[in-house]
Specification:
The complex is a heterodimer. Chain A is α/β, with parallel strands linked by helices. Chain A is about 25% helix and about 30% strand. Chain A is built from 10 helices and 19 strands. Chain B is built from 36 helices and 39 strands. The chains are: A alpha/beta, B alpha/beta. At the A-B interface, helix 3, strand 15 and strand 16 of A face helix 9 and helix 16 of B. The complex binds adenosine-5'-diphosphate (ADP) (2 copies) and magnesium ion (MG) (2 copies).
């Protein structure tokens, strides 16, 4: 009956039916709660080492279209759904979930009690998992999992190899690609920016020659250990250029300013996370992907101040330099998927770019 | 900012009587609001004229005024109570309109009452079409183009700009009379001309039609800090053009991409912010299925039916949060009701699919116009939760309680393809079944899509179900297929039918193979946070989250969707039963499927299973929870009907035994019982053909009351006066399946009374007798009931009391019993015995202060009347008079005859209480929406058999100074008795004729009685409809007319020569 299973590190098994690619795949099992936006999630580079579990049970209802991808090649390792839709319906739909996962080599399972899986992960913390044929013995699956080496650096594999330009007549922005989502580019082109996307390891001198009005350090799938050079690069621009960090870029800026970063016991991949503005004391909703976090106590000795906190646990969601036009957020202001109410951050950043220019 | 300390006392206005479009959802929101405010230490003063509501109980508000919801009475209440603030956003459109009027007339200002929740300005911006349009333009939010026109030419100019089709809505006609969709100039000329004529201000609104787009609703909440959240979005399966209240709706949206969703979310939040609402708001949008174009259809600046649905769908109690916001809290200051770790500033995440189905009353209104459009017709709704669309969809169908547990109804078997296709195009209440029938005939999803414009996502799902049905058929007793079928939501009954087995056999097969559902928690967060929610739904999956306690438990079955005959009263009783169980220290578990009600508020019971009320679904819960017993007495006929099956499967029914229930409901057994205890009922017999009917008729004598035996709740019940009418009747019903036997009963004219009693199996307490103003023959639910009785002799009363005690004892009733009697010449006939809670429980409980449902529940659990502190027998009568006045929704139900008869037609009720009968009646009538003018004119058109009796009424109206109008026959009869009267021409004659007299508002009352023979399109019918459609009281029973006269007489001084 069932021909596939997801086996977790702790030995828990979930049986279902395979679709997409037939290969065996391991990855960290993470839960995504958005009720819409599976296309964006699947193509989000931040999921590079993840087997993504969609907590909403019906996935693929509106198919996949040409416009809503967040990267060209999906980086996700695997997909777990309660039910995939075989007859998608939407005027933009060009492909079904089944065909997309097949073409893009994503192993997937449907028919799993994803709520049980969600609760399991919530209770026991993040863990690795493997998508395997249902016939694979449990111990075989476990050893397969532990034998699989993690990729040395996702940033290296996902960041662009060469710089490229997305031309515009507005502000000149350099975008450091740590595995960026198209949403950032979309947010910038919408604001007519002239964007130069550069590899994560692009040399500071070369960046300087681009004479940017501002620099954005993108989100991405990696860990701080992968991007030490980026931190140094940031330090060399801090006094020269307005900086804006998103996700991994936020951690990089924090570290460049002297803060410390730690790994979370359970990663956070939420669409619709409430975040509180520290000054205004109001809440807004964000999409956040987070495996590491800035340690609050390490902020004190830095020139940074906290601008936003995650409402439920007070953890840091946004930082700002006390005197320089540098700020960063842990969440995705470009949304896609998720609430779009933080897009004003791009406007704020672009305004800060002007200030330095004219002064 | 924490709560507002500058106010102490808050007035909450309820929504009044239940009508179509404003039902139990406002009892739910109002109850929540009152609780929330009391929790904060405010004194809550409640005004609501609907006695059937939970909110009007003293447990929920400090001061309860069940007074008419009019400016006059509200002003009195304000003057007396001096509240600091008024919360108007939780009592539907009624409360909102009243608040606006109170503010505009300066009442609020002069008594220093602050408006909470919304300002007058924001209410007006949302409600006034022009202001709304201006605001949307400012916000750059698109609305369908529209124009207000007063001539046909203006209409023609408008369509030159916007193109057909357009929708015409005449101004100030009730229920959208005279409006319609126009596809071409001919239709436009026609409808506009007619619409202008019908509109008292000769004005129509024209709007570009956007029918066929996706209709999506957003439920949003905002606080004073300008924080705003979307609690839920909901997608209508039926596209724009069918009122959301009549549409099948799913939550969350299924076919919207994240981009679509964010676009509409942004629009909704922008609108609530611009309107400055502090509380809940509903935004209705239309989305083009082929582009990103969208329109804002409407904004309701208050909680609504949809917000009740959204609250139940997400577990996020909108009304409660809205009430707290109204008194100053911000979202982040409030605790999340289900998740300890977080605040209420959180957008619910669902990991299930919710489906809402409307429930219509066309089983009662067989002649009604069933087609669906922009005017809501549903009386109630159900909600179902599943982990897949199919599961929730099929559960939804089971929950409707319309005699089918699958996507199939018998009546369509007789339709040929052509008829099906016709009905597919013209949406009606059975469309979803027609779609299934068409698919069974092989029609493609594409064709159905082209006809219905229902998104293919949903049609494909339905198609999958039809294919599965075929697979089940081809795989007799195949366990693998059985499992798949159950996962898709198929009922045992359906599978049994396809396999030609009994439902019990399928159930047994499943049990043997451990194919049983598990229960998942509704936690508002998709399992991402630990939650202590006690709200569950079933699914066929792995992990069961409903953990059983060690406590002794009682399961209470609710009454399902609100429909005519089974309304909010049953929810009232259900809630009180649950509270009583908790008082006794047991765990109270409730099962119900109505999202509008208080009983499905998860804070009421210890555990809530939001499930269909079928034997299968109830058994699953019983097997999991192992309650000591099940209570079926409070869930109306829905729950009672489950008793036999539950018993068969070994479940203990608490209270009155199944055998007694059967004795009361089975005609022969019932007759036998009455004989044994020396009581009589109207003579009657079941007949199988016309000849037999005639024989019985001769034996008993006319008039007769006839009805098909299978019918409950009086549908297709008629009074016939002679052989010809009897023949006509038999002719008419013979086509219905199961029409025979027909029950033929002697029609007894007399005073009808309703008695509700509580018995502990030995002794019986009768809190009161309610006497009906209208004579027997008008359904007890449609008559004005008066407590205490005012015409009954002491002897008759005693006979009723005696009979009630005897019957209760003979049946060994443990719990509730309701009996209707007819009293003719002090002879007491037993009309009907209902071994369950009745419609009158809340009314009687409130006016006698006997907590009836509470006591009945305790009796079922072993208490006795004496242990509860009550003696047996009749309670002493109260000194004040209370009346219960029925309220109808006729203006929403076209083609429904408004004549009162043995079929129940009312949707709600209002109460009036005072020291005297006249005052009580005055209040009750006003509360029910009838105005009582001191002067004016009356139109009389009565049947021949009623002329003599009418004369008295004509005289009294004349004496009061009313002008009399009448049609020919009536006029000459009245004139011949020397009473001045103006004859009006009959229908069809040149104006002024009888219809134009009504339409122009020349009369305040129409008295019209039914000419025997009941042809639906008769002149009388048109007169009655004309009155309804112009908001003129049409009295179809002389007893009602007489009661109104009495009230007018008591409030007017007539000029008398000496
Ligand atoms: N311009 C229109 N074209 C077609 N259908 C419409 C249009 N406007 C409204 N409707 C339909 O009529 C229904 C009722 O309209 P609405 O303005 O929401 O009134 P109500 O106050 O009764 O809810 C809507 O649910 C929608 O399906
Ligand atoms: N034999 C009868 N004589 C006169 N009126 C009757 C008779 N039987 C029923 N009625 C009228 O019809 C109404 C509905 O009948 P009832 O048997 O109570 O049906 P329901 O189950 O709908 O309450 C009653 O309230 C009463 O007014
Ligand atoms: Mg509406
Ligand atoms: Mg009755």
């Amino acid at each position: 009956m069932h021909n596939a299973k997801l086996v977790l590190e702790d030995g828990t098994e979930f049986y279902g039916n395979a679709f997409g690619s037939e290969m065996i795949q391991t990855g960290e099992v993470v839960i995504q709660t958005g009720m819409t936006g599976y296309q964006e999630v699947l193509s989000d580079p931040a999921h590079a080492n993840h087997i993504v579990v969609m907590s909403y049970p019906l996935i693929g209802n509106y198919g996949l279209n040409h416009d809503d991808f967040e990267s060209i090649d999906p980086a996700v390792k695997g997909l777990i759904v309660r039910e995939k839709c075989n007859h998608p319906s939407n005027f933009r739909s060009t492909e079904s979930l089944e065909s997309y996962t097949k073409v893009n080599q994503i192993p997937a399972i449907e028919g799993i009690d994803t709520r049980k899986l969600t609760r399991h992960i919530r209770q026991h913390g993040s863990m690795k998992g493997i998508i395997a044929p249902s016939t694979m013995e449990l111990n075989e699956a476990i050893s397969y999992m532990s034998d699989t080496n993690e990729e040395p650096s996702y940033v290296r594999s996902l960041s662009t190899v060469k710089p490229y330009v997305v031309p515009g007549r507005g502000k000149r922005i350099v975008l450091i690609d740590l595995g960026l989502k198209h949403g950032i580019l979309r947010s910038l082109t919408k604001r007519h920016c002239h964007v130069t996307v550069v590899p994560y390891n692009y040399a500071a001198e070369d960046i300087a020659r681009l004479h940017a009005d501002g620099m954005i350090i993108s989100n991405g799938p990696g860990l701080m250990k992968d991007i030490r050079s980026v931190v140094q690069m940031i330090q060399s621009f801090m006094n020269r250029t307005p900086l804006f960090g998103i996700g991994l870029g936020h951690l990089a800026i924090a570290q460049a300013c002297g803060a410390k970063v730690e790994k979370l016991s359970t990663g956070r991949y939420v669409t619709g996370l409430p975040v509180t503005d520290v000054e205004k004391k109001t809440t807004h909703f964000t999409s956040m992907h987070q495996t590491e976090a800035v340690i609050e106590s390490s902020i004190e000795s830095t020139p940074l101040e906290i601008t936003e906190r995650v409402s439920e646990d007070g953890s840091i969601a946004g930082l700002r330099h006390q005197s320089l036009p540098i700020c960063s957020v842990q969440y995705n202001p470009e949304s896609a998927p998720g609430p779009e109410e933080s897009s004003y951050l791009f406007d704020a950043f672009l305004t800060s770019c002007t200030k330095i220019h004219t002064s | 900012m924490p709560k507002n300390e500058s106010i102490q006392k808050i007035l909450v206005i309820g929504s009044g009587p239940i009508v179509i479009g404003q039902a139990a959802e406002f009892d739910y929101s109002g109850t929540q609001a009152c609780q929330a405010l009391k929790e904060e230490g405010y004194t809550v003063v409640l005004a609501n004229s609907n006695p059937a509501t939970i909110m009007t109980d003293h447990t929920f508000a400090d001061q309860v005024y069940m007074e008419p919801l009019t400016i006059e009475f509200l002003t009195k209440i304000i003057r007396k109570e001096r509240p600091d603030a008024l919360l108007p956003t939780l009592g539907g459109q009624t409360a909102l309109n009243l608040a606006v009027e109170l503010e505009k007339t300066g009442v609020l200002g002069s008594y220093g009452v602050t408006l909470l929740g919304s300002t007058l300005d924001s209410i007006e911006k949302a409600e006034d079409r022009d202001l709304f349009r201006t605001l949307m333009n400012e916000l750059n939010e698109p609305v369908p183009e529209s124009a207000i026109i007063t001539t046909v030419d203006q209409a023609l100019t408008f369509v030159q700009e916007v193109d057909y089709p357009v929708i015409v809505r005449p101004a100030y006609t009730l229920g959208g009379t005279g409006g319609g969709m126009c596809y071409n100039e001919d239709q436009l000329r026609d409808i506009v001309q007619n619409g202008l004529a019908l509109s008292p201000v000769q004005q129509c609104l024209l709007e570009k039609s956007i029918a066929g787009m996706k209709e999506v609703e957003y439920e949003v909440i905002r606080d004073h800090k300008d924080q705003a959240i979307v609690v839920c979005n909901m997608e209508n399966i039926d596209p724009v053009g069918i009122h959301t209240g009549d549409s099948i709706v799913v939550a969350p949206s299924q076919t919207l991409t994240d981009r679509d969703h964010q676009m509409l979310r942004n629009a909704s939040l922008k609108i609530i912010r611009a309107l400055n609402i502090e509380g809940g708001c509903n935004v209705q949008l239309a989305l083009d299925p082929y582009s990103f174009d969208y329109y804002v259809i409407e904004v309701n600046p208050r909680v609504s039916r949809s917000s009740a649905l959204a609250s139940k769908a997400t577990g996020y109690p909108i009304a409660k949060i809205a009430a707290k916001i109204a008194v100053g809290y911000s979202l982040d200051e409030l605790e999340h009701p289900l998740i300890p770790e977080i605040s209420a500033c959180f957008e619910p995440q669902l990991d299930y699919v919710v489906t809402k189905f409307p429930r219509f009353a066309f089983d009662k209104f067989t002649s009604g116009d069933r087609s669906l459009g922009t005017q809501m017709k549903a009386t109630g709704e159900i909600m179902a939760i599943g982990r897949t669309f199919e599961q929730s969809f099929l559960k939804g169908i089971r929950s409707l309680d319309i005699g089918t547990n699958e996507l199939w109804i018998r009546s369509l078997e007789k339709c040929d393809e052509e008829e099906l296709i016709n009905r597919l195009a013209q949406a009606d209440d059975e469309r979803i079944f027609i779609i299934a029938a068409c698919m069974r005939l092989g029609m493609s999803v594409q064709t159905i899509y082209e006809t219905t414009e229902i998104d293919t996502f949903f049609l494909e799902k339905i198609h999958g179900l039809i294919q599965m049905e075929q697979r089940i058929h081809e795989h007799q007793e195949d366990l693998h297929v059985l499992k798949q079928a159950k996962q898709l939501g198929f009922s045992d009954e359906h599978i049994a039918r396809v396999w030609d087995k009994t439902e019990d056999e399928v159930y047994e097969l499943r049990k043997q193979n451990n194919l049983l559902p598990i229960y998942k928690q509704v936690d508002s967060c998709a399992g991402m946070y630990p939650s202590d929610s006690t709200y569950f739904y079933s699914s066929y999956e792995d992990e069961n989250e409903s953990i059983q306690s060690e406590n002794k438990k009682v399961l209470v079955l609710g009454s399902g969707p609100i429909r005519i005959g089974q309304g909010i009263e049953f929810d009232y009783a259900t809630v009180h039963s649950v509270l009583a169980i908790k008082e006794l220290g047991y765990e109270a578990i409730i099962m119900n499927n109505n999202p509008e009600t208080v009983s499905t508020d998860f804070t009421i019971s210890d555990k809530l299973y939001f499930e269909p009320l079928t034997l299968e679904d109830v058994m699953h819960v019983v097997e999991l929870e192992q309650p000591m017993g099940v209570i079926v007495q409070f869930g109306g006929q829905t729950a009672i009907n489950l008793a036999a099956g539950l018993k068969r499967r070994g479940v203990k029914i608490l209270g009155t035994s199944l055998q007694a229930i059967d004795q009361a409901e089975d005609r022969d057994k019932f007759e036998q019982l009455l004989e044994e205890i020396n009581l009589i009922r109207p003579r009657g017999q079941a007949v199988y053909n016309l000849n037999e009917a005639k024989h019985v008729a001769e034996d008993i004598g006319y008039p007769l009351l006839v009805r098909p035996s299978y019918v409950i709740g009086g549908s297709r019940m008629e009074i016939v006066y002679d052989h010809i009418e009897l023949e006509n009747y038999v002719e008419k019903v013979r086509d219905y399946t199961d029409a025979f036997p027909i029950l033929v009963d002697q029609y007894i004219t007399g005073i009808e009374v309703d008695v509700d009693a509580i018995s502990d199996g030995e002794h019986t307490l009768i809190p009161g007798i309610m006497e009906h103003i209208e004579r027997s023959g008008v359904h007890s639910g449609d008559s004005i009931a008066v407590y205490p009785p005012y015409r009954l002799s002491e002897e008759a009363k005693h006979k009723c009391i005696d009979a009630t005690s005897k019957i209760a004892k003979a049946l060994r009733v443990q719990g509730m019993i309701n009996i209707q009697f007819i009293i003719q010449n002090d002879e007491v006939y037993v009309l009907e015995v209902n071994p369950r809670a009745s419609r009158t429980i809340p009314f009687l409980s409130k006016i006698t202060s006997v907590p009836m449902a509470n006591m009945a529940t305790k009796c079922m659990l072993g208490e006795t009347l004496s242990s509860l502190g009550y003696a047996a027998g009749m309670l002493e009568e109260q000194s004040f008079v209370s009346v219960k006045v029925p309220v109808f929704s006729f203006e929403k139900l076209r083609s429904v005859d408004t004549t009162l008869g043995p079929e129940m037609k009312s949707t709600g009720e209002a109460i009036g209480y005072a020291e005297t009968m006249e005052k009580a009646l005055y209040k009750g009538l006003i509360a029910s929406g009838i105005s009582i003018p001191q002067e004016g004119a009356v139109l009389l058109t009565v049947a021949n058999q009623d002329k003599e009796e009418m004369l008295e009424i004509a005289k009294r109206f004349h004496a009061l100074g009313f002008e009399l109008y009448a049609t020919k026959g009536t006029a000459s009869f009245v004139e011949s008795h020397d009473i001045p009267i103006t004859e009006v021409a009959k229908i069809g004659a040149e104006e002024p004729n009888v219809l134009s007299t009504i339409r122009k508002g020349n009369v305040q009352f129409v008295v019209n009685t039914l000419t025997s023979g009941k042809q639906p399109r008769s002149d009388g019918f048109r007169i009655r409809r004309e009155a309804v459609e112009h908001g003129i009281a049409c009295l179809t029973n002389l007893d009602t007319a007489e009661a109104i006269l009495q009230v007018i007489e008591s409030t007017t001084f007539s000029a008398q020569p000496i």
